[in-house]
Amino acid sequence: MTGESLLTADGLHVSFPGRHGGPPARAVDGVDLEIGRGEIVALVGESGCGKTTLARALLGLVRPAHGRISYRGTPLDYGVRGLKAYRRRAQLVLQDPRGALNPRHTVYDAVAEGLRIHRVGGDEHAAVTDALSRAGLRPPERFLLRYPHELSGGQLQRVVIAGALVLAPELIVADEPVASLDASVRGEILALLLRLRAELGLSALVVTHDLGLAWNIADRVAVMYLGRIVESGPVGEVLTAPRHPYTRALLSVLPESALPPVVLAGEPPDPSRIPGGCRFHVRCPVLASGEAERAGIAERCRTEEIAVLTGPGAACHRAGPTPTP
Predict the structure, then answer these.
(1) Residue whose C-alpha is closest to residue 230's, from 269, 277, 279, 268
(2) Span between the terminal Cα atoms of the chain, in Å
(3) According to the 3-state scheme, what is the secondary structure of 236-258?
(4) Which of 62, 125, 156, 172 is a Cys-bridge partner for 57, taking CB atoms 3.0 to 4.6 Å apart?
(5) Could you give the CA distance from residue 97 to residue 63 in angstroms, rounded to a whole number?
(6) Where are the domains of the chain?
(7) Per-residue confidence (pLDDT) for residue 3, from 0 to 100
(8) Which pLDDT score, from 0 to 100, does residue 265 have?
(9) How high is the pLDDT of residue 253?
(10) How far is CA 311 from the centre of its chain?
(11) Where is this region: Disordered (predicted)?
(12) pLDDT at residue 322 in the model
């Protein structure tokens, strides 16, 4: 990482209409996030916490109600031309490669599709074969005329990655990139992403529910709960000394974790009815165990909202003041 910012989100809010005319669902409810050049950031949390909505907003696929997204220091242009130019620089890699690829298109056509949409000139065949080779499908000529049903899950994911690489992006947003793959293939795809960062200087946002994956691939991790980032920082610091009880609970279920197992009560609250105070307090084991009461912070947990994280730290009353970057 160079230390130079590539993509930033400031005070981002994304809402969806509520059911039956009820209050809106605050899927992303005040998020600050930064991705540096050549940096891999893992966005971690349970299903329904807002990770995918945040990722889609960062790609310009969902327009935020409030807040700003900036690319290379310039606010995102939501006009047709502006978005088209941006999406050439920022590419999405989806979780399900079989669903992402047209079963009637050959591998060649699938990878060349981006070149044709963006009307990129030059030698199309050379660009496609180079992208396939970089994605680990070698020799690429073996795959050009094959169809998705003829490939394994790992090969399909490499085709999807090649389809992103062919446009020479600066940023890849990978939404659960190995969730649908066998364990034996996951490591290969993660190693590929690391190699692409080393060779091409790519930045990446990896959306995942798996903190173990974050440990293996990320430089920084941002833990999301109920529309907000509740802890962030360098991956080694967050995952070895978590300060937020939600992060501790996620870590405790990993097979290699030294933390005692933590079972969170219930499900995350409805994002259209976010509780007052700390939004995690209704499930917080620190509050439930009486530890917060003994520390004299229980009432604050129930009634005092915590400010949006603007840097490394934890959004938790017990964690104390957020350290400066």
Answers:
(1) 279
(2) 16
(3) HHHHHCCCCHHHHHHHHCCCCCC
(4) 62
(5) 25
(6) 244-314
(7) 64
(8) 83
(9) 86
(10) 17
(11) 1-23
(12) 47
pLDDT value of residue 245: 95
Average pLDDT of the chain is 93
Letter string b/e over residues 123-145, b meaning 16 or more CB atoms within 10 A of that residue's CB:
eeeebbbbbbebbbbeebeebbe
Tokens of 53: 């909505």
Residues shown for the chain: 325
Question: In the prediction, which pLDDT does 1 show?
Answer: 46
| Spans of the chain below 70 pLDDT | 1-3, 320-325
Q: Which residues partner with 91 through β-bridges?
A: 172
pTM: 0.93
CB 173 within 8 A of CB 71: no
Instruction: Describe the strand order of the beta sheet including 90-93 as a list of residue ranges.
Output: 90-93, 171-175, 203-208, 40-44, 220-225, 228-234, 313-314
CA gyration radius, the chain: 21
Tokens encoding 271: 């994002």
Q: Where are the alpha helices (DSSP H) in the chain?
A: 51-58, 80-89, 97-100, 107-117, 124-134, 153-165, 183-200, 211-217, 235-240, 245-252, 285-288, 291-294, 298-303
Two tokens, residue 134: 């970089």
| Token couple for 159 | 């085709």
Is 107 in contact with 163 (CB distance < 8 Å)? no
